[in-house]
Write a structure and sequence with these properties.
This protein is an alpha+beta fold. The chain folds into two domains: 77 residues, Beta-grasp domain (Ubiquitin-like (UB roll)); 88 residues, [2Fe-2S]-binding domain (DNA polymerase, domain 1). It is 36% helix and 15% strand. It has six helices and five strands, in the order E-E-H-E-E-E-H-H-H-H-H. It has a five-stranded mixed sheet, sandwiched between helices.
């Protein structure tokens, strides 16, 4: 058993008496009561446990806590900026994306990592990036729509214009 100091959601956190091979998922849920990250499959196949490590989307069910010293971890609880939701979280609400909601934290975290690294993804980019996140309710069209809307808003915020001829739109979602 060991002790670890981790940076989670911008804060230094000390955990004690943890086995080296304990997955980050169980540290988050059981030790730190950050229960937004879900257990889905335990094998990294479904994406429900997705968090960011140094800005990259990773499966927390596969990551031993011993491998995370010195890295920055962000969970769904840390994605918002105080009371201001992350644009993806707001889009999920505005577009009524989830049905049961179980997989949605992982979906949002994966989408946030995509948009952080590719602010203007194509539909193919979105489908490729999100392929590892499963939704038992089949909300994939609404998930893509929310991502597209945030990417389009980011383009407006960055450039100051929205050109439907060159930006993602609803027509592409229907294909």
């Amino acid at each position: 058993m060991a002790s670890y100091q981790l940076k989670i959601n911008g804060e230094q956190v000390f955990i004690d008496n943890i086995a080296d091979d304990t997955p980050l998922l169980w540290v988050l849920r059981d030790e730190l009561n950050l229960v937004g990250t879900k257990f889905g499959c335990g094998g990294g196949y479904c994406g429900a446990c997705t968090v960011h490590v140094d800005g990259k989307a990773v499966r927390s069910c596969l990551l031993p806590v011993s491998a995370l010293t010195g890295q920055s971890i962000t969970t769904i609880e840390g994605l918002a900026n105080g009371d201001e939701l992350h644009p993806l979280q707001q889009a999920w609400i505005d577009q009524d994306v989830p049905q049961c909601g179980y997989c949605q934290a992982g979906q949002i975290m994966n989408a946030a990592a995509l948009l952080q690294h590719n602010a203007k993804p194509s539909i193919e980019d979105i489908e490729s990036a999100m392929a590892g996140n499963l939704c038992r309710c089949g909300c994939y069209v609404r998930i893509k729509s929310a991502i597209v809307s945030v990417a389009a808003q980011m383009a407006v915020d960055i450039v100051g214009i929205y050109d439907p001829e060159t930006s993602l739109g609803v027509k592409e979602l229907q294909s």
